[in-house]
Amino acid sequence: MVTRCRLGIVLALLILAGALPAQEPAMTPEEMANFLLKAEVINSRHTTKGVTSPYRLTMRLGNVTHDAHFQPVDETRPTREFTDGSVELNFRDSYKYNIAAYQLSKLLGLDHMMPVTVFRKWSGMSGSMAWWLPVKMDEGERKRKKLEPPDKEAWGQQMHRKRVFAELVYDSDPNLTNVLIGEDWKIYMIDFTRAFRLRGELQAPRNLERCDRNLLEKLRQLDAKGLAASTKGYLTSAEVKAVMQRRDKIVAHFEQLIKDKGESAVLY
Ligand SMILES: Nc1ncnc2c1ncn2[C@@H]1O[C@H](COP(=O)(O)OP(=O)(O)O)[C@@H](O)[C@H]1O
Ligand SMILES: [Mg+2]
Question: What percent of the chain is predicted at pLDDT more than 90?
Fold first, then answer.
């Protein structure tokens, strides 16, 4: 009895120290969203990685305790100069794009690759509140440690989905700490605060080599009205228009690739 109790305390301490992953509660995306909207914040700290240093909150609702990522950044500047000397006009860095990206991922059937994300106010700030993912490492760490995923085909298929999505939303900050790796080498996409630029062009169409069949179909079906409705308050009409222009380019790009290489070389 005493031993079992001690074991419980040791396990709890290991989980708190981050040495062991906490058991993920079995919840649907709707239940996660409800949790994020209603749970009480019982602890807060800043995340250890990243640029804007958002918050990692511990939250509780009923008998569920779980962490969440809270990102309140919402900046607009006429110009912004980066360390590499490049200058971006109409620079925006906003939590609103995290919410818009999640809404768009739902329309495309890619939401299983992102944390459930909602709008919430906390501690006097408005921001995006996202489910804290069961992450083993990020892509930067994987590369540093030269770790290879055991199933290269499955890994590649996830990466192709990620690339298509990054082009669609024009993610101007696609760095390696924004690609998280969970159980069984599952890839998650996070941090879209610098996405949704107003350009109708793709950044690097040459990186779009293959596409999930289902995703291509969903891209064809995506319509401006539906996108505007599900991202109301988070994307302007100009931002929606730019997504649709890039959608047209992605679809045309894959249609051309299929013509050149044959469907089985492009779609999976
Ligand atoms: N939902 C999440 N689940 C687990 N870890 C996360 C989550 N969101 C962010 N992180 C971690 O926090 C870091 C910083 O968050 P991020 O949204 O990328 O902000 P920024 O890069 O602007 O500081 C990420 O690189 C990642 O390590
Ligand atoms: Mg980041």
Answer: 81
13 found inside a domain = no
pLDDT of residue 83: 81
Single-letter amino acid, residue 225: K
The parent domain of residue 160 ranges over 24-266
Number of domains in the chain: 1
Q: How many residues does the chain have?
A: 268
Tell me how far apart the alpha carbons of residues 253 and 102 are, in angstroms, rounded to a whole number: 24
Q: Which residues line ligand 1 (CB under 6 A)?
A: 47, 49-54, 69, 71, 115, 130-133, 135, 138, 177-178, 180, 190-191, 193
The candidate with the shortest Cα–Cα distance to 35, out of 113, 111, 131, is 131
191-220 confidence digits (pLDDT tens): 999 999 999 999 999 999 999 999 999 999
Instruction: Report the half-sphere exposure of 38 (CA within 13 A, side-chain side).
Output: 9
The whole-number average pLDDT for the span 7-19 is 50
User: Which residues sit with Cβ closer than 5 angstroms to ligand 2, an ion?
Assistant: 50, 178, 191
Residue 14 placed within a domain: no
- Ligand 1: distance of its center to the CA of 204 in Å? 24
Q: Whose CA is nearest to atom 8 of ligand 1?
A: 69
Mean pLDDT, the chain, rounded, equals 92
